[in-house]
């Protein structure tokens, strides 16, 4: 599969198997997809369809058994574990259904966590985080801890954390699953702005047709295979 400079994600004939022999299970089979930079894509499918496995490959937390995974021009299967960890830290952002904020850190500190882990959190970077929190309507809450925030506020902090280091790809796993309908819509409104404002490619796993309707396209899996939406 030819790769274009405008491609953020390219999987070529990627398969993932678990177990061996008679116990071998195919979680993904011969998946080839291309997602362009700055796109927002819904990842859909029933439980057991392979969504979680595909997210794990895109999130550089697992490797395909066969095939290729390229993100932002980098072939992930060629990286050592150490370089893969560095790639995750610098090139990827994550937003989860459970917010996964650090309870002992303030909203500002949680948002700054990728920079802190990369030892890049000086005065200039603090200003960047403060401006980002202001953009997300969180300035007045910067000094609060997660248990002092509503679910929607916590998810906004999680989104700030996911984009503060300007990743190439943001992976969102059911990001509205723990929110009420109105707050969920507000989070979807925010996610829709990220490709334009931050140049990030968003891949969102969701069961919601409403959420998928906010995306540029739907990537549908069934029994470990892509049945719709594999092209750019």
What would your notes on this structure say?
- This protein has 232 residues and is an alpha/beta fold.
- It has a single domain (38-63, 91-228), classed as Rossmann fold (3-Layer(aba) Sandwich).
- The protein is 34% helix and 26% strand.
- The chain has eight helices and ten strands.
- Helix 6 (151-163) runs parallel beside helix 7.
- The longest helix has 18 residues, at 181-198.
- The protein is globular, with a radius of gyration of 18 Å.
Low-confidence stretches: none
In total, the number of domains comes to 1
Report the mean per-residue pLDDT as an integer.
93
CATH architecture: 3-Layer(aba) Sandwich
Q: Report on the biggest sheet.
A: 6 strands, mixed
Order of helices and strands: EEEHEEHEHHHHEHEHEE
Q: Tell me the name of the CATH class.
A: Alpha Beta
Structural class: alpha/beta
CATH fold title: Rossmann fold
Tell me what portion of residues adopts beta-strand conformation: 25-35%
Radius of gyration: 18 Å
- The span between the termini is 12 Å
* Helix segment tally: 8
Shape: globular
